[in-house]
Every structure is written in structure tokens, then in C-alpha cells.
Write a structure and sequence with these properties.
about 5% strand, elongated, membrane, mainly alpha, 5 helices, iron, Cyt_b561_bac/Ni-Hgenase, Di-haem_cyt_TM
């Protein structure tokens, strides 16, 4: 790894997960805005992608903990350094929490978590409709927060790539 670039596994995981998370957000938006006849089809995609994101996020966290990130530019204002670090902690937290909350929500709702024909996840919570309601609300609220965080992340990447041209964008881009 070059000191100015993320390790190759980190870059591959970043872009793979970016595509999966974008797909997940679009599928989730479709789930809450579609007619009921499309909901089961969208949910059938939502569940396995969510599990894939959870697994990849854990792998990505392990890669991140074992491979140093390139340093941020020395002239970056302290508030931007804090925002970068804080937003990355939130991104990792949501990449792990969102699938777990979805899994817990489906478990509490008493819904089988069918990933594909012949493979159903075990429930992680007992059936409890009140808990289901709270988890559904939380899952939706965090999805909006995740979307806003991703927009901020994208905006920061474009700022570094197009305006500052300081190598931050290229450290993950290629």
C-alpha cells in the first residue's frame, strides 16, 4: 500500500459496498412508496443485500483496523478533520446497525427472514409487535440519516477531488 492510498482490499470493499448501499437505499425507498403488490418482491431483494452489507461491513472493519488509512492533508482545518473522522465512525456504525435492526425488526414482527429459497435466517428477537413497531420506526429514521450522511460523504469527496485537489479523493478512487 502506498502511504497516500488505502489498501486494495479497503478500496474494493468501499466501492462494492457503495453500490450495494445505494441499491439498498433505492430498494428501501421503493418499499415505502410502492403499491403492496411490489412490496414482497422488493423485500426479497432487500433482505439478502442487507445481510451482504452486514458481512462486508464486518470484513471492512477488520481491514480498516489492520491497515492504516492515508493521512489527511496537513492543512485541512481541524473542523473538517473532526467531521471526516466522525462521519466515518457514523458510516461504519450504520453499515452494521441497519442490517441488524432490520433483522431484529423482522424477528420481532414474527416474519421469517428468507434470504433465498431454502435458506431462512434464525430470529434474533422473540415475536413482540410493540418492539417490531419501534424497530420499524428506528430502521426508517436511520435510513434517512444514512442517506443524508452518504450525501455529505459524496459532497466531501467531490470537494476534495474537484476543489481542493489534495489527494483525498484519489486515495480511495483507484
Amino acid at each position: 500500500m502506498s502511504p497516500n492510498r488505502f489498501a486494495l482490499p479497503a478500496r474494493i470493499l468501499h466501492w462494492l459496498m457503495a453500490a450495494l448501499i445505494l441499491a439498498m437505499l433505492l430498494i428501501g425507498a421503493g418499499m415505502i412508496s410502492t403499491t403492496t403488490d411490489r412490496y414482497p418482491e422488493l423485500l426479497a431483494w432487500h433482505r439478502p443485500i442487507g445481510l451482504a452489507i452486514l458481512i462486508l461491513a464486518l470484513v471492512r472493519l477488520a481491514v480498516r483496523l489492520t491497515h492504516r488509512a492515508p493521512p489527511l492533508p496537513a492543512d485541512l482545518p481541524a473542523i473538517q478533520v473532526a467531521a471526516a473522522k466522525g462521519s466515518h465512525y457514523l458510516l461504519y456504525t450504520l453499515m452494521i446497525a441497519m442490517p441488524l435492526i432490520g433483522w431484529a425488526m423482522q424477528s420481532a414482527g414474527g416474519y421469517p427472514i428468507i434470504l433465498w429459497k431454502g435458506f431462512t435466517l434464525f430470529p434474533i428477537l422473540p415475536h413482540d409487535i410493540v418492539v417490531y413497531g419501534w424497530l420499524r420506526f428506528t430502521h426508517g429514521l436511520l435510513a434517512y440519516a444514512f442517506f443524508l450522511l452518504i450525501l455529505g460523504h459524496l459532497g466531501a469527496a467531490l470537494f476534495h477531488g474537484l476543489i481542493r485537489r489534495d489527494g483525498v479523493f484519489s486515495s480511495m478512487a483507484g
